[in-house]
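**Fold in tokens:**
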Amino acid sequence: METPVEHDALLRRHGLQVTAQRLAVLRAVSSRPHSTADDIDKVVRAEIGAISRQAVYDALGILTDKGLLRRIQPARSPARYEDRVGDNHHHLICRTCSRMVDVDCAVGFTPCLTAADDSAYEIDEAEVVYWGRCPDCAAATSVL
């Protein structure tokens, strides 16, 4: 997790003004990866008080546009945000409790970046989502 000074420098490096709202959003996402915008809004409001929902959404948008945050939109699920950017990782999502965790791409190479037919595109990122049940939900179901 980055320190407040590092968050300040990160914003400046990306040409963004350092604001309490942006810093609070960065902290919220950093401490709770894979949170929805509504969850981030609640955390930010609890931390800094008076802030509009739109200001939180605007901060999420600009931080995502600048590459400081990653927006993940799994099927049938609200968008989620994380600060793990710049690598090619994927996600596991529990169908029962919606818990999401990171999973690294295959070790040593990135087969997901090699499409069967790339249609002459230069592929630099792939979004893979694995769906199933987390260990807790699987264990709870097997007990019943």
User: Anything to note?
Assistant: The longest helix spans residues 53-65. The helical segments are 4-13, 20-31, 37-48, 53-65, 135-143. The mean pLDDT is 88. The two ends are 39 Å apart (CA to CA).
